[in-house]
Amino acid sequence: MTTSSQDTLVPFYKPAALEEGPSGSVADYVLHEMARRIVDGEYRPGQRLVEAELTQDLGVSRSSVREALRRLEINRFVRIEPNRGATVATPNRDEIVAQFRIREVLCGLGARAAAERVHLPGNKAIMQSLLDEIEVQRALGSEKNHRRDNGRFHRAINEMSGIAEIGELLDQSNFPILHTIYFRDLSHAHWERNMSDHLDIARAVFNGDPVAAEHFAKQHMHRMVDIAVAIATQLQQESRTTAVARRSQSRRKSAPDASA
Ligand SMILES: [Zn+2]
Fold it and tell me: Which domain covers residue 206, as residue numbers?
C-alpha cells in the first residue's frame, strides 16, 4: 500500500496533524471533522457511517464525503466493505496484537538508531531537553497531557533515528481509536510506569547506548500488549452494543405502528 503525505493523518504518532486542523479545502475539512468525531468517540466503534447522513450533517457534497471516507480508510479510522459500506473501524484482538508487535520492532529500531546518531550536531541538546521535560512532567505528577507529551517524545526519538520510514510505518499500522481509549482510560500508575520507561529510553539514547536504547524501547511497547487486548475486548463489546442499538432502531423505523 502506498500513501501520500496528504493521506497521512495520525492523532497518536503525530497529534499535531489533527490539532493543526484542515488546510482550507472542503475535502480537508470533512476529513478532519470526521477524524475528530471518531477520535472523540462521537462516532462509536462499529457505527455505520452513512454517506447520505454525513452529507446532510456536514453540509458538503457527497463526493467530499466519499473522498474523506476513502482517506479515513487508508488511515484505519474506518472500514469499507462491499455490502455494508463504511463503519468506524473496530480492530480485533489479533490485529491489535499484530500492531503492537510491529510497534515493538519499529520503536526499538528507532531508539537504537537514535542512540547511534546522538553524537551528531544538536542531538545531545534535543535529548537533554527531552530528559528535562520528563522531569517537569513527573514533578507536575499528572497524566493529563500524556497523550500530547507521549507523542512528542516518541516522535523526537524516531526523527533522530534518521529513518523516515519508521514514522510512516507507525502511521500505517495505527488504529487511532485504540489510542483514544488508551489515553482516556490511562491510570496514574500506568502513567508513572510510562514516565519511568521514557526516562530509561532517553538516558540510553543520550548515553549513545544502542543496545540499551533498543531494549528499553521494545520493553516499553511490549507492556502495552495486555492493555491493548483489554481495549480490543471493550471495543468489540461497544461494537456489539452499537449493532444491537442499530437493529432495534431499524426495527422501530420499519414498524412504526408496532406499539399502536
Ligand atoms: Zn511512550
Answer: 93-231
State the distance from the centre of ligand 1 to the C-alpha of 87, rounded, in angstroms.
29
Question: Is 253 inside any structural domain?
Answer: no
> How far is ligand 1, taken at its centre, from the CA of residue 154, in Å?
6
Residue 246 has pLDDT above 80, yes or no: no
10 and 53 within one domain: yes
Whether residues 18 and 116 fall in one domain: no
State yes or no: pLDDT of 11 exceeds 50: no
Are 82 and 112 in the same domain? Answer: no
Give CA–CA dist 96/51, Å, rounded: 28
| CA of 150 relative to ligand 1 center, distance in Å | 5
pTM of the model: 0.75
Residue 72 lies in a domain: yes
pLDDT of 138: 92
Decide which of 39, 56, 89 is a domain's last residue. Answer: 89
List the shell of residues around ion ligand 1, using CB closer than 5 Å: 150
Q: Is residue 238 part of a domain?
A: no
- Residue 56 reports pLDDT greater than 80: yes
**pLDDT at residue 23, rounded to an integer:** 62
Q: How far is the CA of 55 from the centre of ligand 1 (A)?
A: 38
* Cα 58 to ligand 1 centroid, rounded to whole Å: 35
**C-alpha 204 to ligand 1 mean position (Å):** 15
Centre of ligand 1 to C-alpha 182, Å, is 12
